Amino acid sequence: MSAFGRLLVWSNGAVLICAALALLVIPPATLSSSARQNRELVTSGQALDSTKAAALVGADPATFSVKDWAALLSQGGAEAVLGKQVDLSGYVLDRGKEDVFYIARLVVSCCAVDAQPIGVPVYRPGWRAEIEPGGWIRIQGAFVKNPSRDSQEEAAIGVGSLANIEEPDQPYVF
Amino acid sequence: MIGALLFAAVGLTVANTLQGPRLLDAQINPGAAVEGAGQRLVLRVDQTVAHPTTDQVTLTPSVPVEQTTDGAALILRFADSLSYATTYEIAAKVQSATTGASSILRYSFRTPDGAFYALQRPASSADADAPAQIVRHFIGSTEQRVVRSQPDIEQYAVADPAIAVVTSDADGAGTLTVGPVDGSGPSQTLAANSDISQLKSSGPSGLFGFVLTPLSDPDRGGDAQLHLHDPMTGKLITVSGFDGKPLDPLDWAFVPGTTSIVAQTADNSFYLIDPLNGRPTQPLGGHSRMYGIVPGSTTLIVDDNGDYKAMDLATGNTSTLPDIDLPEAAGLQQLLPLAGDRGYVGWVATQDGAGLVVVINNGNVRQIYAEDPDPTGGIQSICLSPNGQYLAIAKLPRDVAMNPDSSGFADKTELIDTATGRTDHEVAGSEVNWCNQNPTS
User: Fold this and answer.
1) What is the pTM of this model?
2) Residues of B in contact with A20 (CB under 8 A)
3) A53 contacts in B (CB within 8 Å)?
4) Nearest to A13 among B4, B25, B280 (CB)
5) Are A57 and B282 inside 8 Å of each other by CB?
6) What is the per-residue pLDDT for B131?
7) Which of B124, B148, B164, B187 is deepest in the core (most CB within 10 A)?
8) Is the pLDDT of residue A25 over 70?
9) Which residues does chain A have within 8 Å of residue B253's beta carbon, measured at their own beta carbons?
10) CB within 8 A of A71, min separation 6: which ones?
């Protein structure tokens, strides 16, 4: 090999060795300030905002009061409440139906003297044999299509369990 | 020659094997990160990384983060919103999932200066056509710029880069226009000859919402109805209630980071409505008032006749907040949730009639502001910056009814650092745009 050939080999080798050493010695580089700035600009639009929005379920209907359910039914929500579980306490309101009574509360807007009853229908054939009108009860169950031919409501609570209770400390709702 | 190349190839392979992951790219939206918690910093590296432990990632200044990996990316999710005009430095020790080699990734970014807008109304003695001005300010800077100047501005909201402005004519009929906040294009009239109220912005997601009552169009029946508008697409959506009728809310708010809103109807029933996707409306029960949504979450704070409740709209769980014991307090005027574990800001009326602002956290009450007893004015309203770093206190001059130089509205707004109670900025005018991202009441 000529002197020129040997020089070429050595110079090529030196370049490769320097490159290898540089990779070993020089620590991983972070992005330059300008690169960071440019990338922030590129990504500061909608790219990261397009992640899927959180799925919301709302509130647990088991926490709803007699007033809440009555408000929903009065807004034509019979279909929406079907199958929803309830756990309610209230007094028994008798509207002269044989298979339906109302679990009710007095709603106070100003003062006790202005209190108005608000109630939710409960489908329970033969209920008079179990509970007294005006007595306080707790019911657990779910809304069903009202099978009663004696009342107009589209949905009523189909009772899973029903128990007589003492009048609560706070009988009113606000 | 061949030997040298072989040597180099082996050397490079060894070097590559020994070397830990290297940072290729980083993605962060600093503007969104100061608007609310939950934003992500994605550090993309050149090889698959193992999941780092908590102590392997440090942020300066400190912010709670949740860390995950996704192939060749380390993802940090900020559990709290970031502060304005702050440089954050991240050092993360990462390990290659394939070779086990480790390295330290370093990255830094700076959050934007806190920009906000305020409405300056003319004095009541000024000419009828004297303009009101919407002025853009930066926290800690005297720099300001008038972005709108026109008579009779009643309300406005900013969803950057768009601004919505409601003006009224001499008969009280309102006009709503939406256009670029920097004036780079013409504004579009969205509604005219109408009563327009409860104008709000969703902030980073860029939507506006308002209650519109047409005043003269018999075909539209004159019913008040909540509308949502997306200025990017020009889409205008009418919002219906649980009963399918036009929704005329007592109060309402966007749920940040979602396409849903929460609305309170006249009978104090609350509903979760997704007008954009048309999902079924969810009843939320009856409550007397809503105070807002905890930033960076989907937790709604409501008042049930004195019991404060946190309702997580993502899970349906409702919890009662600990009793708020405020000595010498006659009443709590406002309660604003802070992000993370920072608690709440409360505006308290004391028994001697003075106003205080406190931070309530885990039963501890810390006063950050007391109303001036002098004539400079009492607190008219408070609202938080989206990251909860600052509280904007609009002050009403005590001589507002007598002074012809007064606009009849709050004419000064102070920005209080919620961590220190220090007044960091003071501007003329009121109705800071942050207030339009919260419930009205």
Assistant:
1) 0.81
2) 8, 11-12, 15
3) 257-259
4) B4
5) yes
6) 93
7) B164
8) no
9) none
10) B267, B269, B286
Partner-chain residue, chosen from B4, B32, B103, that has the shortest CB–CB distance to A16? B4
Q: Which residues of A touch B107 (CB under 8 A)?
A: 30-31, 36
Cβ contact (<8 Å) for B318 and A63?
A: yes
Domain ranges of chain B: 2-110
Give which of B131, B140, B137, B44 is closest to B94, Cα–Cα. Answer: B44
Give burial (CB, 10 Å; 0-12/13-18/19+) of B156.
buried
Q: Which CATH architecture has domain B2-110?
A: Sandwich (2.60)
Kindly write down the DSSP assignment for every residue of B15-71, as one continuous string: HHHHS---EEEEE--HHHHHH-TT-EEEEEESS-BPPPPGGGEEEES---EEEEE-S
What is the tens place of the pLDDT at every residue in A113-147? Answer: 778 899 999 999 999 999 999 999 999 999 999 99
Q: Which of residues 42-71 of A touch B (CB under 8 A)?
A: 43-45, 47-49, 53-61, 63-65, 67-68, 71
Q: Are B271 and B284 in contact (CB under 8 A)?
A: yes
Query: What φ, ψ does residue B134 adopt, rounded to 5°?
Result: -100, 120
CB contact under 8 A, B19 and A48: no
Residue B263: closest CA among B255, B278, B277, B253: B253
Q: Which residues of A touch B32 (CB under 8 A)?
A: 44, 48-49
| B298/A54 CB distance under 8 A | yes
> Which of B13, B100, B98 lies closest to B48 in space, CA to CA?
B98
* Helix-helix angle B2-18:A3-25, to 10 degrees: 0
**Cβ–Cβ gap B288/A174 under 8 Å:** yes
Buried b (16+ CB within 10 A) or exposed e, B347-360: bbbbeeebbbbbbb
For B163, the token pair is 């601004």
Whether pLDDT at B2 is above 80: no
Average pLDDT value for residue range B29-47: 88
**Domains along the sequence of chain A with CATH:** 3-50 (no CATH), 61-173 (2.40.50.140)
Shortest Cα–Cα distance, A27 to chain B (Å): 9
Q: What is the pLDDT of residues B233-261, one digit of tens each?
A: 999 999 999 988 999 999 999 998 888 99
What confidence tier does B402 reach under pLDDT thresholds 50, 70, 90?
Answer: low
